[in-house]
Request: fold
Amino acid sequence: MKLNEIRDNEGASKNRMRVGRGIGSGKGKTGGRGVKGQTSRTGVAIKGFEGGQMPLHRRLPKRGFNKPNAIDLNEVNVGRIQQAIEAGKLDKAAPVTIESLVAAGVVSKPRDGVKILGVGELKAKLAFQVAGASKSAVQAIEKAGGSVTLLGAVAQA
Reply:
């Protein structure tokens, strides 16, 4: 193969369609725009237009708000953590962090951190280093003899 022999594959590029150049071209007369009317003219944009009637997107009420800096936390119940300990996936001696929970398969991805919720029962004495914890979760952890450390600015969420 030589540089002067390099070509596109057959059919890889088409010639530009010349619109409005006589009926023999197949795109003559109306130029592919149909006949008459607003859409056959230039400068038409009627995506949501309903003939002067109030469009549907303006008739329906506005609702909701997406906070641009919202914190996306994993929520884990203390009962789920107890299951992971009983299955031997979490180490009792090491502190419970988002990394250890991901490694144990309790949560799938780290996101912005983890919040511990109080559903279930915790029997093991654990040290938690998490972004947030509910009051019932903190009570359950302290009842089992553990401790909770809330991390950084995420703790306020």
Notes: Residues 75 and 115 are 5 Å apart (CA to CA). The beta strands are 74-77, 114-117, 127-130, 132-133, 147-150. The longest helix spans residues 78-86.
